[in-house]
Amino acid sequence: MKSIKSKIFVFALLSTLIPSLVLGLLSFHLNENLIKDNVKRELRILASRASHELDAWVNQNIHEGKSLTSAKIIIDALSTAANLQNGYIKVSPEILTHYLSSVHKKLETILELTVVDINKNVFASSSDQHILTEPLKNLWLDSNTSHQPLVSPPLWSEQFETIVVSIALPIVSYDDYILGQLVLTYDLQNIKPLLKGSTKSPRGEIYLFDSNGSALIATHTDVSYPSFFDSRTFQYLLNNPGESLTFRSFSQKNVIGLAYKAETLPVTIIAEKNHKDVYAAWTKQRNLYFILVSVSIFLVAIIAIYLGHSIVTPLQRLINATGQIVKGNLDISITVATRQKDEVGKLAEMFNLMTEKLRRSQTKILAANKTMLQKNQQLEKLSITDGLTGLYNRNKLNQIISDQLLRFQRNKRPFAVLMIDVDYFKVLNDKLGHVIGDEILAATAGTLTQSIRSIDFAARYGGDEFIIILTETTVKEAVITAERIRSQASEIHCKTIDKIINITLSIGIIQSEPKDISPTALISRADQALYEAKHAGRNQAYTISPDTEYVASLNSD
Ligand SMILES: Nc1nc2c(ncn2[C@@H]2O[C@H](COP(=O)(O)OP(=O)(O)OP(=O)(O)O)[C@@H](O)[C@H]2O)c(=O)[nH]1
Fold first, then answer.
1. Where would I find the HAMP domain in this sequence (predicted)?
2. What is the whole-number distance in angstroms between the Cα of residue 361 and the centre of ligand 1?
3. Is CB count within 10 Å lower at the N or C end of the chain?
4. Does residue 386's CB lie within 6 angstroms of at least one atom of ligand 1?
5. Contact, 397 vs 464, CB < 8 A?
6. Pocket of ligand 1 contains residue 438 by CB under 6 Å
7. Ligand 1 pocket check for 341: Cβ under 6 Å
8. What is the tens place of the pLDDT at every residue in 66-118?
9. CB contact set of 208 (below 8 Å; sequence gap of 6+)
10. ipTM score of the complex?
11. Is 45 helix (H, G, I), strand (E, B) or coil?
């Protein structure tokens, strides 16, 4: 992650995402806990109301039953069975059965009315197939006294094909002796509308379970007997009454439920609410939150990209421009948008100013360099040139001769040296003056330059003496050049006085030989040749021929 753009992008995303997620998750966690507490409270209310409905239903039935137990016919019938003679009217089981049937017809909510004697034997019943359930018998056994009404646990009745609950009420004689029990059997489905009414607000579902863990009835779902919950779930709910748990219910939906022990009816109440309904608002809020966070991140990402772009693009231009400067191209400037007044804009402005200054400095430096170069060239030229004649000076001549000697040693091809002196120049000077003398010297130099090839060299040796180096030339060939020079220099046009001056030249000619180990040695021999020319009467060329041995050796090569 090297680029500034990606750093800005990541920072913007993280600075949006982290606080959003932390606050969001914290808020959801708090809300979830609130919802959990709230749903637990509502489930407890539901279960408690259901329990009260059950109690009310049982108590109402007990109340109804108690009025029947005081019926004279029932007391007389059991007194007869018990052989009590104290003024009781003898009532046979058939008569009591008839009576019970007539009562049964009036009380439709009762499935069966059965009268049992003190020994728990059925005396009479409204039903042909009267039942005395095992649970009821057990209750009688557990109870030391039968003075209190007993409510049997609900159970499936094959006879009535429904879940039934029996309430046993003691039948007491006028002497306050217990004569037997009136057993009233009810359909548990009767309680369903009552329970349903208790689940309207808060809304929910109520199940009644027997001690075996089978559902008996439900307020909104049809359950067939026996129907069981997952045993672990049921056990957890039983072991933790009043504590909520999320589990899969008969409706195949996730629910939140809790268990509650009913007081008068021996059943377990399970109140439950649909998990989806409970968390609907929470889920909606969560989805909305994620949509808002996504939109925020999207907007922040766009802004981050724009910001990164607005910073990186000018920077990239600066980098490119700096790269051009590094390559030596100073003809560059960066376009700065008028609206860009930020640091990057200022940096670009400063960059342009800096480049402009560099350009000016470079122009000055280039001009100074050019001048210096020209001056150096002039100096170099002056250092090797004779000021009066424009020919090479003595220093340069020494250098040229050294080079030629080296070359000669390598390729054995000799070069010729012409040492030239103006005859009686002193007389000319004295007669015409030094200025004219200078002009004569310069004109003589011009003649020399015109008489030689481009590969040859002409130098002023000093005073009125000149030396010419003819490369790869023998004395024989050099004589021709010397004669040409002599003939061309005979008439010098003097511009100052506009006259033709007749001068003569004496020339000494030699060619390089192996014995010439230095420029001095070579010049010395040329000077000797010149001396000979002067001595022979001037206005002539004198040649010192090379050693015959040496010439022979050259020819043999
Ligand atoms: N005008 C002028 N004269 C110079 C310059 N340099 C040397 N001379 C003169 O040149 C003369 C050279 O004379 P010499 O070569 O000795 O003698 P000469 O008169 O040429 O006689 P020979 O060489 O024997 O023929 C001297 O009088 C110098 O003063 C110069 O640059 N300008």
1. 309-363
2. 53
3. C
4. no
5. no
6. yes
7. no
8. 999 999 999 989 888 777 666 667 888 899 999 999 999 998 889 999 999 88
9. 50, 54, 154, 188, 191, 195, 215, 216, 217, 218, 262, 265, 267, 268, 269, 270
10. 0.97
11. helix
Closest Cα to atom 32, ligand 1: which residue?
A: 438
Q: Is the CB of residue 389 below 6 angstroms from any atom belonging to ligand 1? A: no
Residue 400: closest CA among 487, 334, 335, 467: 467
* Structure tokens belonging to residue 155: 């159970």
Distance 466 CA to ligand 1 centre (A): 12
- The minimum-distance atom of ligand 1 relative to the CA of 506 is 25
Judge if the beta carbon of residue 465 lies within 6 A of ligand 1: no
Cα-to-centroid distance, 463 and ligand 1 (Å): 6
Pairing of strands 541-543, 505-511: parallel
CA–chain centroid gap for 336, Å, is: 30
Q: How far apart are CA 525 and CA 502, in angstroms?
A: 28
- Compute, in angstroms, the gap from residue 439 CA to the centroid of ligand 1: 13
Residue 557's pLDDT band, with cuts at 50, 70 and 90, is: very low
Q: Tell me which of 297-306, 410-419, 486-495 is least confident.
A: 486-495
Q: Closest ligand 1 atom to the C-alpha of 422?
A: 20
pLDDT at 401 over 90: yes
- 217 closest CA partner among 257, 226, 197: 226
The Cα 94–Cα 109 span in angstroms is 23
56 Cβ neighbours under 8 A, 6+ residues apart: 194
Distance CA 551, CA 179 (A): 178
Global pTM reads 0.58
The DSSP result for 278-290, as a single string, is HTHHHHHHHHHHH
Output the six-digit token pair for 556: 């043999």
Catalogue all structural domains in the chain, each as residue range(s) with its CATH number: 18-154+164-186 (3.30.450.20), 192-276 (3.30.450.20), 394-556 (3.30.70.270)
Centre of ligand 1 to C-alpha 415, Å, is 28
